[in-house]
TrEMBL record, chains A, B:
<keyword id="KW-0238">DNA-binding</keyword>
<dbReference type="InterPro" id="IPR028082">
    <property type="entry name" value="Peripla_BP_I"/>
</dbReference>
<keyword id="KW-0804">Transcription</keyword>
<dbReference type="InterPro" id="IPR000843">
    <property type="entry name" value="HTH_LacI"/>
</dbReference>
<protein>
    <submittedName>
        <fullName>LacI family DNA-binding transcriptional regulator</fullName>
    </submittedName>
</protein>
<dbReference type="Pfam" id="PF13377">
    <property type="entry name" value="Peripla_BP_3"/>
</dbReference>
<dbReference type="InterPro" id="IPR010982">
    <property type="entry name" value="Lambda_DNA-bd_dom_sf"/>
</dbReference>
<dbReference type="InterPro" id="IPR046335">
    <property type="entry name" value="LacI/GalR-like_sensor"/>
</dbReference>
<keyword id="KW-0805">Transcription regulation</keyword>
<dbReference type="GO" id="GO:0000976">
    <property type="term" value="F:transcription cis-regulatory region binding"/>
</dbReference>
<feature type="domain" description="HTH lacI-type">
    <location>
        <begin position="3"/>
        <end position="57"/>
    </location>
</feature>
<dbReference type="GO" id="GO:0003700">
    <property type="term" value="F:DNA-binding transcription factor activity"/>
</dbReference>
<dbReference type="Pfam" id="PF00356">
    <property type="entry name" value="LacI"/>
</dbReference>
Length: 330, 330
DNA sequence: TTGAAAGCGGTACCAA
DNA sequence: TTGGTACCGCTTTCAA
């Protein structure tokens, strides 16, 4: 049996209530006894039984985080941001990875919900995911990070629509007129919809009518990048491609290499995300870098503030981070 | 206030005890009432208060997992393995990321220890890490995964010593006589010690006296790989290099590319780990692939079995996964 | 098969 | 500043 507050109380010759007050730093007590109690707690190797504490308190300081295993890449960065702020503001993170297997997903989420949580932060969870329904039915505060959702759930993410303008402008200024968007053709996710719309509108702003064929690729993975090159073949019918995730862009890059297409001379690439992965390629990927750490920090702050309304949408910065995959073809 | 077992009991006109028995599937009850209760629980959106359950039970089914943020790469794969087995055997994982900042580390670990845990699984935590002391002092079962430790803590990992023989033999059979080991020079970690020793002994087995200069590089990161190439310069004094982690090997590969050294013609590379990262390079990295998923599964099984003695050391498979970074120079 | 009641370890209110 | 005490929600023993 582990050491309890009572054990300490006995040894110190005071009541459990006092020990509790001292160790939680709440209410009044004399510094003298406090010293003794803290010393004893340390000596006896006491660890608070958080379950008991949770049970007797109404407000929890635990924030659940749902991470799909398919997106662990940037999720890591968001989690780091959340960790830092959580540490600072004294919240605890309960991280749960969810697989694509929906049965397992639901079980995992249910066990999450069995803890009293302040809120659940969903990383890159979409309306179509089976867990989504479970979450909305349950009586928890929700927050979507990195993914804009409907206006029933507040979200923190990049402004995906505006981001596409930034990217298209950047490419346009480098002389590109024929551009492809790879990996955002999945019809459902709002993010994909926004990116497609942003892409099309941005092209129109420059008087370019978009070619529907150049919006291609459904899945958010490496293979999509490889396949895109295979599909269009050399010479490519466009001069620049926007990869909808770093891993897709790496696929594009390697696919181009395999097909003898030179990057950036024959193909310029801008990747969306800009995680550490982009540094590992040759050339280094030019990226529309999302500020994932900031998303994580804002998520914790928003939850701490209690100021989230269902339709709160918070946007974080995006910046073009120059690499070596965009050629100036003016 | 959330729905409790009592609410259900009231509505069903039975006692809380019965509801508990039914929902946990313990003890005896009639199938008829069980049906009603389950239905009611579902309708009312009931979620068990796990804190209360934990408090009243002695044995916990929660396994804490400590993941250093610096090693998230293969950690992901271990976690997936653990998740799968945990799901199967009905355990819950409580994942905590620990940063390099030791103050934060300790706080995180303490909050982990404040939950009643069945055990704590340490991924790639070393004896030198400040958390290690906290963990060993606390009254929890410990298990180290991916890292062999002393024989006070049981561990599940690859056989790092034998692995080096496999790699050296592989390179030897491809005609290599001058080999370097990059990124395993950190004096402390047992893994690094074993790899160095394995490397040296394996060379000796082939009658090769090792060159101390060729064991180089302390940190487990990308920069170490880049720096290694810079340090030795072109032409390299060895024909093959073993990268002590995928990210190091990618550094080697890119460093070589930057220096005009052709891989594998002028430099062969074998990487240790073989995570998904190895598939993203050109050429694809030849790897001594560790079976991380297996480590994760075994970890859960070992904890479930209760058969771990302090000096249990379990080894998982390693296999050479052929890529395109090793040339045959016979 | 079901119910009453004690208790898990803390917290917080109220009284001393 | 301290202590007594009634909970928090669930599990479990024992009795009905």
């Amino acid at each position: 049996m582990a050491i309890t507050i009572k054990d300490i109380a006995n040894k110190a010759g005071i009541s459990a209530a006092s020990v509790s007050r001292i160790l939680t730093n709440r209410g009044r007590f004399s510094e003298a006894t406090a010293q003794r109690v803290r010393q004893l707690a340390h000596e006896m190797g006491y660890y608070k039984n958080q379950s008991a504490a949770d049970l007797s308190q109404k407000e929890s300081r635990v924030i659940g985080v749902l991470v799909p295993t398919t997106h662990t890449n940037f999720a890591d960065e968001i989690i780091k941001g959340m960790q830092a702020k959580a540490f600072e503001l004294d919240y605890e993170l309960l991280i749960a990875f969810v697989e694509t297997d929906s049965q397992q997903q639901i079980k995992t989420v249910k066990s999450l919900l069995s803890r009293q949580l302040l809120a659940v932060v969903m990383l890159a969870i979409d309306i179509e995911d089976p867990v989504f329904e479970v979450l909305t039915k349950a009586d928890v505060r929700l927050l979507s990070v990195s993914n804009q959702l409907n206006n029933v759930i507040p979200s923190i993410s990049s402004d995906n629509y505006a981001m596409m303008h930034t990217i298209v402008d950047y490419l346009y200024n480098h002389g590109h007129r024929k551009m492809a968007l790879i990996g955002a053709s999945n019809p459902d996710p709002i993010v994909a919809v926004l990116r497609r719309k942003g892409f099309i509108d941005a092209l129109l702003d420059h008087g370019i009518t978009y070619n529907p064929e150049f919006i291609w690729g459904v899945d958010n993975d490496y293979q999509t990048g490889l396949d895109a090159i295979k599909k269009f073949g050399a010479p490519l019918p466009f001069t620049a491609a926007i990869g909808s995730a770093d891993i897709i862009s790496i696929g594009l890059l390697n696919g181009a290499k395999d097909a003898g297409i030179a990057v950036p001379q024959d193909l310029s690439i801008v990747t969306i995300d800009g995680t550490e992965l982009t540094q590992l390629t040759r050339p280094i990927l030019t990226a529309a870098q999302q500020n994932f750490a900031q998303m994580g920090e804002l998520a914790i702050m928003a939850l701490a503030d209690h100021t989230l309304s269902p339709h709160t949408v918070t946007f974080t910065d995006i910046t073009i981070k120059q690499g070596g995959t965009v050629a100036n073809i003016n």
